[in-house]
Design brief:
Strand order of the largest sheet: 2-3-1-4-5
Distance between the termini: 45 Å
Helix content: 55-70%
Number of strands: 5
Largest sheet: 5 strands, mixed
Structural class: alpha+beta
């Protein structure tokens, strides 16, 4: 039983983000196989739902400046619109057209490219260049299709509309995104994996209007739910360390227990370290310090309040000095650690300073406790580092 508990404790955090995308795919499969003959009214409803979900998802991602899923979603909607255009123009032979062959070839390529693009602000020259490249590529494909020419030729024919060569490309896409998702464990990576899978299934069953609409809609819904879940998570958690964020501290401020101690842990000489190590080294160092704090206080509320500052809300015990001793334990653990950073041959030694204060009856709210604790910490830092004080 203990072995199972230990396995679950290590495994569940890695696979929890797969549940929502997997549930959407399961629902799409059940609709496809459970209701094989959707009437025209239902198909039009799903068709409208696809575009409404796409518009909603685009709006949310533009508002929150999410670039990677925007490009991913762009390819999905272009595929859906162009395939439907082909099916209207040539209902019986759309799968034999050069445009459909090119779409099946370039879609997995673009989805793989966008899945591995680093997350950055949406409105940049780099992203504008990619956007122009995508539209130029689709324009060339459409122009060649009008002349019966294709940039991608199938290796051999299959019973499905999707050529076998393109099926292999989609399979390579799935395997690559699966490996990436398992390694990262983030909901966005799992969402892109399942959205790509649903897009591939939509291509495979493109001769069925209902199937294509169901699976393409599932792909958009997967991305939408991932975006909403990620936004909700990032509101409550610091993106770098996974600890509570400053916003979470403000939200939780009115729900702290009646008696508690507030502790502040501050990384000493943070700005000089940041200049010396660069952004990557600074982020690695911050995560390592956060992991030590979490290791020493696994059951308490911990927030990353600023770049170099962590706040702990500690339950008061009968020992009046317990809060001070707990922060002192963290300080000693950091001081005795040797941090190995990427690109550095030798380990780096750093220190932190801390201050703690118990909530008093006269304190109106947590911000009075925070102000008193920070004042004591600043007084300590004015003459020394690597110390713990009590306000």
């Amino acid at each position: 039983m203990k072995r199972f508990s230990a396995w679950a404790e290590k495994t569940l955090p890695l696979i929890k983000n797969i549940f929502i995308p997997a549930a959407v795919l399961t629902a799409a499969v059940l609709v496809f196989y459970g209701i094989p003959d959707l009437n025209r009214g239902t198909q039009l409803t799903l068709h409208t739902l696809f575009y409404l979900l796409t518009l909603l998802t685009f709006g949310i991602m533009l508002f929150f400046n999410q670039s990677k899923p925007v490009f991913f979603l762009l390819i999905i909607i272009l595929d859906y619109a162009l395939i439907n255009h082909l099916k209207i123009a040539a209902p019986a032979a759309f799968a034999d057209t050069a445009l459909f062959a090119d779409l099946g070839f370039f879609t997995p390529f673009y989805l793989l490219l966008f899945a591995f693009l680093p997350e950055r602000h949406l409105l940049t020259r780099f992203n504008a260049g990619i956007l122009l490249l995508v539209f130029a590529q689709f324009a060339v494909i459409d122009h060649l299709n009008q002349n019966g020419l294709s940039l991608a030729y199938p290796l051999y024919e299959t019973a499905s509309p999707l050529a076998s060569s393109n099926q292999l490309l989609f399979l390579f896409l799935f395997l690559t995104l699966f490996i990436r998702s398992v390694a990262a464990g983030k909901i966005f990576d799992y969402a892109l994996l399942f959205a790509a899978l649903e897009t591939g299934i939509g291509f495979y069953y493109a001769d069925s209007a209902a199937a294509m609409t169901v699976f393409f809609t599932a792909a958009v819904l997967t991305i939408l739910l991932a975006v909403v879940t990620d936004i909700f998570y990032s509101t409550r958690h610091d993106a770098l360390t996974g600890l509570g964020s400053r916003k979470a501290f403000i939200i939780d401020a009115g729900r702290f227990p009646i008696k508690y101690s507030l502790g502040i842990i501050c990384i000493d000489d943070y700005q000089p370290l940041a200049k010396m190590l660069g952004r990557r080294g600074r982020n690695v160092l911050t995560r390592l310090v956060a992991s030590i704090i979490r290791e020493k206080e696994p059951d308490e509320r911990i927030y990353r309040y600023s770049e170099d500052e962590f706040i702990l809300i500690l339950n008061i015990t009968e020992d009046k000095n317990s809060s001070f001793n707990r922060l002192e334990t963290i300080r000693r653990a950091v001081a005795s650690s040797a941090f190995i950073l990427p690109g550095k041959k030798r380990p780096i030694k750093i220190t932190v300073s801390g201050s703690v204060s118990d909530k008093k009856r006269s304190d109106a709210d947590v911000y009075e406790v925070l102000a008193r604790t920070r004042k004591a910490l600043q007084k300590t830092l004015s003459f020394s580092h690597n110390v713990t004080s009590k306000a």
